[in-house]
Amino acid sequence: MSRDVATVHEETPYRGIVDLLTSRRVSAVPVVDNFDRVLGVVSEADLLHKIETEGHPGTRRVFEGRRRRTARVKATAALARDLMTGPPVTTMAHTPIPAAARRMAAEHVKRLPVIDDLGRLVGIVTRGDLLRIQLRPDADIRRDVVEGVLHRILGVRDGTVRVEVHDGVVTLAGELDRYSAVVTAVRLAEAVAGVVAVENRLTFAFDDTAPTLVGVA
Predict the structure, then answer these.
(1) Which of 93, 132, 174, 207 is the most buried (most CB within 10 A)?
(2) Is residue 167 helix, strand or coil?
(3) Beta strands in 28-178 (DSSP E)
(4) Residue 115, phi-psi category: left (phi > 0), alpha (psi -120 to 50), beta (remainder)
(5) What is the mean pLDDT of residues 155-159?
(6) What is the pTM of this model?
(7) H or E stretch including 46?
(8) What is the mean pLDDT of residues 109-133?
């Protein structure tokens, strides 16, 4: 995420928002209160309603949909509190990258303000930020899989599992003692930033998920 976030307050005027977007070369800004809690987001799309209706005064229709009604209101708005889209779609600082990407896609937004446990703004993540994660060097990805997943979490000894990474695709080969360890290794490797896919070539000594027969003579 980016920590240097351009923000506005509820009372920021239309022109002030336009100037900020232009000077910072961003397409949207969070609206925050005096405690840095995120109230909403003002984007270029919110500001364009005013331009779209210039010379065509807004008139109410008998049957007016929510989208048209919102556009009409924003076309006459002068302050951030009336221009912003809310409630804001946000994410927590500790949210895994895949989860943030899924939320962004599900909510059809291009950015997510990142907040702490008190709802205060600590950063912002965009589609571009998430895509850049996929450009991590293969060597960095391999290090995270070997040291973070295999050594630190699963306690696998050196040489037990071979790890190769090519264009973000991780190949795991070797033998682990339990089937559940194989499943965990693959799942955690898939969650490593920059991993495109995991090719599982792992075997296991015994299946610890299979039912145990008790009392069979």
Answers:
(1) 174
(2) coil
(3) 28-32, 38-43, 91-92, 111-115, 121-126, 161-166, 169-178
(4) beta
(5) 92
(6) 0.64
(7) helix 44-52
(8) 90
For residues 20 and 98, state if they share a domain: yes
Please classify residue 116 by burial: count the beta carbons closer than 10 Å to its beta carbon, then call 0-12 exposed, 13-18 middle and 19+ buried.
Answer: middle
Show the domain range for 166: 138-206
Q: How many residues does the chain have?
A: 217
Is the residue at 214 inside a domain? no
C-alpha to C-alpha distance for 58 and 84, rounded to whole angstroms: 19
- Among candidate residues 93, 118, 133, the one where a domain is terminated: 133
| Structure token digits, residue 21 | 């977007």
Rounded CA gap, 142 and 164, in Å? 7
**Which of 103, 118, 133 is the endpoint of a domain?**
133
Give Cβ neighbours of residue 181 (< 8 Å, ≥ 6 apart).
154, 156, 204
Q: Output phi, psi for 79, to 5 deg.
A: -125, 160
pLDDT at 211: 75
Helix (H, G, I), strand (E, B) or coil at 99: helix
Structural domain total, the chain: 2
- Measured distance CA(118)–CA(111) in Å, rounded: 20
CA distance 124 to 115: 8
Locus of tokens 């048209």: 68
The long-range contacts involving 70-75, CB below 8 angstroms and separated by at least 24 positions, are 74/46, 74/49, 74/50, 75/49, 75/50
